[in-house]
Amino acid sequence: MKSILPLVLPLLAACAPVQTAHTPRPDATPFTRYVALGDSITAGFQSGGLTAESQRAAYPHLLGERAGLDVPMPEVQAPGCPPPIGVTGEKNCALRQPGVISPVVAVPGAKVGDVLDSTDIQVTDPDPQLYDAALYRAILGPSTTQLDAALARQPLFATVWIGNNDVLLPTLRGRPDQATPLDRFRANYEILVDRLLTGGVKSLVLMTIPDVTRVPALIPVRQLRLLGVVDESCQGQEAYFGSVVVGRASKTAPLSCTSPETLTAEEYGQAQRIVEGYNTAIRAIAIERKIPVFDVTQVLDTLPGRPLIPTAAAPFGRSFSLDGIHPSNLAHQRFAQALALFFNAQFGTDLDVRP
């Protein structure tokens, strides 16, 4: 039987459907000079790390492929900057291709204000869990802001997905009150959008901020009780702890629901309202300038949910990477396809929308 396999397999492969290259309509708007601004999601951060493989799996790169564009990424050398969960080795932020000019200028950890002002040597009140000068230097080059890098590419098309970090980490720390105030968020976002428009961007898409309380990295106390890592103060409590806090808990040193790091039910709702406020501001800015808004929640709602029986390889299922915060390869593929459909509808482009 084994001797037949070498003969049969080529025949089966020949019978398999072949997906032909996509040819845009002659009358379609050319999709060219595209830049992507944002944070770790747009940069391709997964499983707590940034690698060349995860960068190439990011939605801006995949969107470019759907347009037939070469979208080089600022690929870092192995094992990563930093290495992802489960990968050993020292952090390495050196580029695989020094001097590469990437249209994807997103920097992990960036807030809205950082897009305007932060560089590898300049930052205001940096949070050590968000700001990494080495990442700024690798992705943007020396003394360059994300906005300046984007405008230097002379873009015609641009996507902006920024604002997640303005609320996510404070929520995971149980302190949504420390999120970026709404008035500052809106002021910075308006400056960003106006700078892009005056800088020559003709087709701009703003992307909403997802509900940060939906990330698997925000863990309900009821689950932590099963693991024995919370004390009796959590009995009957509807509360949550972020993975940044849970990581240091143990049965001998359990978490207390009297701790300020606890996200109470009231604070849970507060975090959701902050996101709603940010998204209302984004939509208002867009309406004033007649810019389309891409609702990321519509994509997130189509993704597979959490598994009933988690595995070590995919503890949060197929939609999230191992850190429970950043989307998986599958999610990035869905975002790229949905954005291709959106661009075609909004701007008359003819990007490949096949699954």
From TrEMBL:
The protein's GO terms of the molecular function aspect are: hydrolase activity, acting on ester bonds
Task: Name one matching Pfam family.
Answer: Lipase_GDSL
PROSITE patterns given in the database record: PROKAR_LIPOPROTEIN
Position of the signal peptide: 1-21
Does the keyword Signal belong to this entry?
A: yes
UniProt keywords, alphabetically: Signal
Q: Name the source's superkingdom.
A: Bacteria
- Positions the record marks as coiled coil are none
**The protein's name:** Lysophospholipase L1-like esterase
Origin species: Deinococcus humi
Q: What is the lineage of its organism?
A: Bacteria, Thermotogati, Deinococcota, Deinococci, Deinococcales
